[in-house]
Structure formats: C-alpha cells, structure tokens
C-alpha cells in the first residue's frame, strides 16, 4: 500500500548553506570557471581543492557576492547571490588571501571598527542598526580573547607575526557571527604551528554549527578539516566526495620505476608521476603481485627499459595528481598562458 | 532622512575615524603635509617676495597667503589618491563590501579625513602668516565665506583624487597625480598676477579654477569686493565634485565587481 503522493508533511527542509549550478566566469577570453556545480549542507566543512589557477578564488568571490558570474546561479544561506546580495552579505563572511586588516591600526582598533560596521545581532535586515560603541568594544575584547590576541590588543598590526595577523583577520570576519564562512587559502604562507592553530579555529567554528567553505592547495588540509572535498581543475570539478571516497577512486598503490633514457621518453606520457632528474615514473596499481607483474610487462615488454622498481602506498597527493590530470586541459595553452586567476588587487 | 542614508552616514563617520587614525600614524606623510605649507610660505615671502611687485601696493605676504593655502590644499587632497590605492591593494575593501558597505561611505571617509588634515595645515599657514605680518581685513562673514570656499575646494580635489585613486593601479601612479595637482596653482594668480604672464598662458591662467578660487579667497580675506568671482569659484568646486563623485561611483563598481 503506497501513500498517495501529496504535499510533504512537516516543515520544508532548510535550504543548503551553499548551492551553485553551472557557474561560469571568464576574464577577457580566459575561462576561469567552466560550469561549477556545488551543494554544501548547513553546518558542514567543505573544501574546494585545486592547484593554482584552478578557479578557486573566483568561485569564492562569486559565492561571496564580490564578483558576478557570467552564467549560472547560486544561493548562499538560502539567498540568491545576484538578486539578494545584501541578504547574502549579512549571512556570510570572507577571509581572503590578502589580510583584510589595517597595518597601521592596533588589533583592538581593527576589531572595534569592524564591529561598528556590522549590523547588531538580531537586527534583521534593518540597515540603520549598526553596532554601538560600547557593544563594539565588548565584541572586540571577546574576539581578541578567543583568538589569544589580548596580549597584543594595543599593538599595531604591523608588528604582528603572520600567524597573529591571520588570526586577527579571521576574528575580524567573525564579528558579525556569520552563518557561512568563506576562507580562501587560509593557511597559505603560514608556519606549521600557525597552521595547526588555524585548523583548531575552523574545527571550533564547525562545532558551533557554522558552515565553513574553504579553498586550499593542500590535500592534507582538506583531509584534516573537510567533511567533503570538491576537486577543481581548469575551472571544472574533476571529483567530489569524502577524503576516503576520493582515495578509493584511484588505485591505492603506486609503482615507481627507474627507466632508461629511451624508455623514459616512451613511457612518460602515460605516467601519473614524473621525476625527470632521476628518470623515475610512477604508475597507479592495486599492488597485488600478479597486477604488478602484468604492469611491468606491459610497460617494458622486452625487459630492457626498467632498471629498478619500488612499490608505495598511494598518498593523497597521488589521488590529487591523478584526479587533476584526468581532465583534458581547457585549451592546450602554451606555457605561461594557463588560466591565471586575477589577483583582485 | 531615510534609513539607508542614516546608516550610510554612520558608516562614513566610522570610515573617517579610520582614515584619521591611519593618517595620524603615517608620520612621514603628516610631517610633509604640515611642513610643506610652512616652508612654501616662507620661501615665497622671503626668497621670492622681495623681487615680486604684484602691483597691488601691499606687502607680498598679503598677496601670496591664499596662493600658498591652495597649493597646499591641492597637495594634501591629492594624497587621498594614494590612500585609496593602498586600500585597493589589500583585502580590506573586500572585507568592507562583504559587510555590505558601499563605495560611497568608504570613499567619503577618505575625503572627510583629507578635509580635516587640510584644515589643520590651513590653520598652521594662517597662524604663521599672522606672525610674519599678514593682516587680513575680512568681516566675520568674509572669513566664513573664505573658509567655506577653501573647504569646497579641498572637498572637490579630494573627490577628484579619490576617483584617480580608483583609476590608477599603483600608489606610485597616484603620486604622479599628486605632483600634477600640486603644479596647477603655478600657472594661476597664486603667486604673481596673471597679466604678467605671456599672452598664450594668460588665457588659461586667468580662467582656470585655481585662479577663480584664489581671487575669491583673496578678495574675501582682504575685504575687497569680489563681484561674481565667489560664485564662479563655488560653481567650479561644485562641478568638479559632481563629476568626481559620479566617476568615483562608476570606477568603484567597475574596479570591485570585476
């Protein structure tokens, strides 16, 4: 007995934190995004992983309403990024690759200024309800404390270390208690300790129910932080899933072979990994003895090309390289003409 | 006032506070902005002044003070361009925009701070010129009108400068604009009467906005009748402000929505 299809009972499910359909963007004739689709549920940590120039920053800027897509549509926190720009901006924050704090103000001054410019919590969409002086002071103190910057509150940001600056930048983006946080390469250029600290902050935010959308070039970062990973290359998604799913999508071992000069040139195009200096090529494999033997035979039928071999467990980097190499290049662009993202200065 | 305008005004005030803090801490630029007017006043009065006969029968300091004021106002206002390019270089504009703050409050903050900086320099020039013998004969209304006109001039140049800051890509190029604007008072009646200039220059020098503003400010301070010059000067300032704010609005959108 089937219930008749009818109006769904109960409240309508909340829209996802981020939904993008067919986003395209070109700068002059360089296509940076070639049809990006994404869905990020509320409260998730989602990583957009890709090499330089893959279109990560452009994707974030479109979702954060700072750039308009040429085609496609997107909603963030349930609001359309084009038609309801103000509502989206009230619900999000963006921490870009360039620190968005003033070097010549102190940490406390920067945060107080941001707090003054932020709508009072619970003020709805009323525009006149910016935060008052006292409330701004309190919010700044609270954030400085939370990000371990109280001791440097009255120092000019110019004197901060890279990690402190990044923490202040993140604190500044949290002044308005956003629902969705965009982090564009948050740990690029940070030392390992500062990177760990930032990861802790992201986990805390996520634990409090905030949706985090971050871009990164580092697989390790995506693996550590994200519930799901989208791999972006040449402006399109080449894979999406959890870290484990992605690892399963490619072979879990890699066979490295050291070959002769002649064999190197013959085999290099098929290899997943290439190290010309040592004439080493890497090939994905399941790792079983039969499989490895078959692979060696296929690569080197007359037994003269391969000098040595070694078998490794696949790393996430192998996954990444395999995934980002399976797509045909957007256009066989000559060197130096890769779809560089604009630096947005 | 509408809610949006009120909110915009409060944002602009916060932005002005920011710009003032930043300019207070940019010590090199601040010293330049304050020392340059003083030096120029002394140079014109004591180095050149003895050799210049303005044909007005007054001591040169009386003639040149308005000129020095405008020269410095131009220099000071043009530094707005550098402040705007510095902002665009970093990520702070994106942060402001993601707080849903429009271009107008951001730029207005720079313009208001520039006006405040310039009024400080202006007071310094006035104080020094009194000390070395400047004796204006303006009525209180004349003083108000003269100061009002100076503020209008500074505002116009600051908005122009903000628009240039959005147009050029680097602080260095913005510096080039500062130089150009600082140069504009030379072919005007700032330092010598324009009828002493060669005929091909006289046309430009007599009609250009700097001359109009200087003649009006000078007349007002010395208590002389200025005829329509005051209104012409004000119209120039209003016109430049209108064009510059419109251009700044368009450039801001083009620059940040790319």
From TrEMBL, chain A:
It holds the Pfam family ABC_tran. It is a peripheral membrane protein. PROSITE patterns: ABC_TRANSPORTER_1, ABC_TRANSPORTER_2. This is ATP-binding cassette domain-containing protein. GO terms for molecular function: ATP binding. InterPro entries: AAA+_ATPase (IPR003593), ABC_transporter-like_ATP-bd (IPR003439), ABC_transporter-like_CS (IPR017871), ABC_transporter_ATP-binding (IPR050763), P-loop_NTPase (IPR027417). Keywords: Antibiotic resistance, ATP-binding, Nucleotide-binding, Transport. Residues 18-259 form the ABC transporter domain. It is found in: Cell membrane.
Automatic annotation (TrEMBL), chain B:
PROSITE patterns: ABC_TM2. Keywords: Antibiotic resistance, Cell membrane, Membrane, Transmembrane, Transmembrane helix, Transport. The keyword Transmembrane helix applies. Residues 28-255 form the ABC transmembrane type-2 domain. It is found in: Cell membrane; Membrane. Its main location: membrane. It comes from the Bacteria. The chain crosses the membrane at residues 27-48, 60-79, 119-137, 143-167, 231-252. It is a multi-pass membrane protein. InterPro entries: ABC2_TM (IPR013525), ABC2_TM_bact-type (IPR047817), ABC_2_transport (IPR000412), Nod_factor_ABC_transporter (IPR051784). The keyword Cytoplasm does not apply. Belongs to the ABC-2 integral membrane protein family. This is Transport permease protein. It comes from Streptomyces solicavernae.
